[in-house]
Amino acid sequence: MPIHSDDKHRYPPNWKVIRAAILKRATNSNGDQQCECRGECGLHHGKRCSELNGYPAEWAKGTTVLTIAHLDHNADPDNHSDANLKAMCQRCHLRYDSKQHQANARKTRRAKKACGELL
Which of 44, 92, 43 is nearest to 64 (CA)? Predict the structure, then answer.
């Protein structure tokens, strides 16, 4: 998943190298890149998610794409350590970040409403 242009400043120049290392770590014994979520998303309860990068999704429509999740929700923009990053399928990543997405949506709605009141 490409980085949104508004967020590019938050990623180091070597992000592609960091991402590749996380995806390599996510490679299972069969040689497939597998979601590393073990319940952080609220599912799986300690078992590793079964979604495989590039394969049809088991629990959603379409093809699974592994994305890199910041476990601290990017609270520290410079924290790109291995311990703070996990390869997650879209489903797990969206569930894991759901509270952050809700907060961002509220902020956006407020800003749009305030802008509309000025016009």
Answer: 92
